[in-house]
Amino acid sequence: DAKTTQPPSMDCAEGRAANLPCNHSTISGNEYVYWYRQIHSQGPQYIIHGLKNNETNEMASLIITEDRKSSTLILPHATLRDTAVYYCIVRAFGTNSGYALNFGKGTSLLVTP
Amino acid sequence: NAGVTQTPKFQVLKTGQSMTLQCAQDMNHNSMYWYRQDPGMGLRLIYYSASEGTTDKGEVPNGYNVSRLNKREFSLRLESAAPSQTSVYFCASSEQGASDTIYFGEGSWLTVV
What we know:
Chain A is mainly beta and 113 residues long. Chain A has strands at 9-13, 18-23, 33-38, 45-50, 55-56, 61-64, 70-75, 84-90, 107-112. In chain A, the strands form two sheets. Chain A has a five-stranded mixed sheet with strand order 1-9-8-3-4, with no helix packed on it. A four-stranded antiparallel sheet of chain A has the order 2-7-6-5, with no helix packed on it. Chain B is globular. Chain B is mainly β and 113 residues long. In chain B, strand 5 and strand 6 form a beta hairpin. Chain B has strands at 4-7, 10-13, 19-25, 31-37, 43-49, 56-57, 64-68, 74-78, 87-94, 103-104, 108-112.
């Protein structure tokens, strides 16, 4: 499974864009990049995912580099409620764990007033 | 919209006691998962069930058993609880496929004393 590298923590001012980077240099050509977040020990919440193209939904945008070795999650107008741990995950293929998600330690995002 | 429902939400056990965590999903998903999360850590996969009638070990299966009772329900059993199993347990479900989103329950807080 491809591993991911994220900064342990980031700060962002309320109302500004939060850009969370993720490195996944060993990603395989048919593996998806997923982003989840976890607010204060609640169940992880799905944000967005992508394969090759950039993606946007009502929560965020996902920018994947052309070589697919890194990606950036963008929260366009961060609010205090976006304070959470953000996980960048490469979706496991194969028989070892089905299609389960392999979580790392993520990035702890603090949105400040 | 119940989604993924876990019971109980909180439980305190004595070392050596047994208990079962229950999980049910109402999204007609094929795959279900059990994760644990220790303080300050990411989620780790205990067991998963890719489809009804199948179960497989994840990253940390020792000390646990699972049962995929039917398509809706996936239970996690601790036969002889140990303090090292004090953790937050999350159940999750998804359709089969790497592009399918995994949805999580709200967690079950287990303390073994």
